[in-house]
Design goal:
By secondary structure, the chain is of the alpha/beta class. It is built from 12 helices and 9 strands. It has a 7-stranded mixed β-sheet, with helices on both faces. A two-stranded antiparallel sheet has the order 6-7.
């Protein structure tokens, strides 16, 4: 499989995009990839929308997701010059201002649009690589390919289980640490509950704790699709040290930023994830 993906990545983007409608047809009409999850999530998130409106967002999601899949394949071998044309940073000076003062930064994202291209673009357009926290894949060969791809331009990806240890180990370096915590926390994780997309939703508190421990500023990187294969990134400061009081305010601000991004472009979020597996306990 990895050999096939490497070969496919050598195709021009125009050739790869011809595969996107095939993926869409297979995922939506033939396989029905997580359709029950997608439609259930959309119906709960947008209770006021009609069934036709929900279906329209769902189909647009599958089309966008199919395009992101072929773009992720291209990530394996994409040239710096090509990627630089595909991704634009509207206000990178906000992030670079911290880095120029030798201040490491935590950047929070959501599973919105093509975050793989965004992270790779950070590595080539900013002065410091973006070390992304990731969840290792079960398939060893695919996991190795993912690591090779995400570290092509200088980044040092961090396995989720080693997040705190690795961030502390790199404390003498000026780095950007990218974390994408908009998925469901594990049962054993400490959680922050808030209303999110019309539902009680649990969020990880790990980033909040890391930020307070390291005293690193926390930014949110909002991502927008301008047209097929082209993305704009915009940085928003969520919090800066010194951190005192206002417990969980970083997580709350992140939740609001992600929600606003989704409401503006709902078809670009990862609706196939089982985001609301946990129900809010009475004591929370």
């Amino acid at each position: 499989m990895t050999t096939l993906l490497k070969l496919l990545s050598r195709l021009p983007m125009s050739g790869l995009y011809t595969l996107a409608p095939v993926f869409y047809f297979l995922l939506y009409y033939i396989i029905g990839y997580r359709k029950e999850v997608v439609f259930g999530n959309l119906q709960n998130a947008f209770p006021d929308k009609s069934p036709p409106a929900i279906k329209m967002i769902a189909k647009r999601f599958y089309r966008n997701y199919s395009e992101v899949l072929v773009e992720m394949i291209k990530s394996i071998s994409i040239d710096k010059e090509v990627l630089a044309r595909q991704v634009r940073f509207d206000n990178a000076h906000i992030l670079e201002g911290f880095l120029e003062r030798n201040q490491s930064v935590i950047v929070m994202l959501a599973h919105h649009c093509n975050i793989d291209w965004l992270l790779l673009a950070c590595d080539i357009k900013l002065n410091h690589p973006m070390d992304a926290v990731y969840k290792p894949l079960h398939d060893k060969s695919m996991d190795q390919l993912m690591l090779e791809t995400r570290s092509r331009f200088g980044a040092k990806p961090i396995p989720a289980r080693n997040t705190i240890m690795e961030i502390m180990r790199r404390k003498n370096e000026t780095r950007c640490f990218a974390i994408v915590p908009d998925q469901t926390p594990r049962n054993e994780d400490e959680k922050f509950w808030t209303r999110f997309l019309n539902q009680d939703t649990a969020f990880f508190l790990g980033v909040e704790k890391i930020a307070r421990m390291t005293r690193y500023p926390v930014l949110f990187m909002e991502v927008k699709r301008s047209r097929r294969g082209h993305y704009n990134a915009h940085f928003q400061v969520l919090a800066t040290p010194p951190y005192s009081g206002d417990e969980n305010n970083i997580t709350q601000r992140y939740a609001r930023a992600v929600e606003a991004q989704i409401l503006e472009a709902p078809a670009d979020w990862l609706w196939s994830h089982r985001r609301w597996k946990h129900k809010k306990p009475l004591y929370a």
